[in-house]
């Protein structure tokens, strides 16, 4: 009877393991998004993702930092800094979006959720943040900021800086 239960347990474990997509470490670097026609306020953005130390992660108090889910359950964790800059026509500059409460969405290939906030002059932009940070078939990172309950969001598809022409930034 024990052997049958062990065999069934192993069989179920193998079935469940096949249902979860594999996680690969998030690629670090700089990424760019331009010409986002659907967006109401911001048409261009840039994204920077870099590895940081545990101390830097803790000092940031959850602002613009997160833990790479690939390393969960391991002894050595991987901490990342994430900075999204949206181009403001008002200031003619890239403005840093504050991201907080970033959490991994279980059962996904590197999807993370949190909150986003930006203030330019007297105007505040705030809402939820959603990101698909694994490069998919289309080789892009999909990120939405300032999402609200009514379905509004500013969405960007970031391409690697390897696809940018020299001198563009």
Large-scale geometry:
elongated
User: Rg to the nearest angstrom?
Assistant: 19 Å
User: Assembly type of the shown chains?
Assistant: single chain
How would a crystallographer describe the biggest sheet?
8 strands, antiparallel, barrel
Please explain how this structure is put together:
With 169 residues, this protein is mainly β. It has one domain (2-163). It contains two helices and nine strands; from the N terminus they run H-E-E-H-E-E-E-E-E-E-E. The protein has helices spanning 2-19, 54-59; strands at residues 29-33, 45-52, 65-67, 79-88, 93-104, 111-120, 123-132, 140-147, 154-160. An eight-stranded antiparallel barrel has the order 1-2-4-5-6-7-8-9. Strand 7 (123-132) and strand 8 form a beta hairpin. The longest helix is centred in the N-terminal third of the chain and has 18 residues, at 2-19. It is elongated and about 70 Å long. Mean pLDDT is 80; it is low at 163-169.
Provide tags for this entry.
169 residues, eight-stranded antiparallel beta barrel, 2 helices, 14% helix
Describe this structure in a few short sentences.
14% of the residues lie in helices and 43% in strands.
Write the layout of secondary structure elements.
Elements: H1 2-19, E1 29-33, E2 45-52, H2 54-59, E3 65-67, E4 79-88, E5 93-104, E6 111-120, E7 123-132, E8 140-147, E9 154-160
Antiparallel strand pairs: 1-2, 1-9, 2-4, 3-4, 4-5, 5-6, 6-7, 7-8, 8-9
């Amino acid at each position: 009877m024990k052997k049958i239960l062990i065999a069934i347990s192993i069989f179920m474990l193998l079935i469940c393991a096949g249902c979860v997509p594999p996680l690969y470490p998030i690629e670090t670097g700089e990424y760019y998004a331009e010409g986002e026609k659907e967006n109401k306020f911001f048409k261009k953005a840039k994204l920077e993702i870099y590895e940081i130390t545990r101390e830097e992660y803790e000092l940031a108090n959850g602002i613009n930092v997160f833990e790479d889910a690939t390393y969960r359950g391991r002894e050595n964790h991987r901490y990342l800094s994430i900075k999204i800059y949206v181009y403001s026509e008002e200031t003619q500059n890239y403005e840093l979006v504050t991201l907080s409460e970033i959490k991994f969405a279980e059962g996904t290939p590197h999807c993370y959720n949190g909150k986003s906030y930006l203030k330019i002059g007297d105007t505040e932009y705030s809402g939820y943040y959603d990101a698909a940070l694994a490069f998919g078939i289309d080789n892009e990172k999909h990120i939405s900021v300032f999402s609200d309950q009514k379905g509004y969001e500013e969405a960007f598809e970031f391409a690697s800086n390897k696809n940018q022409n020299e001198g563009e930034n």
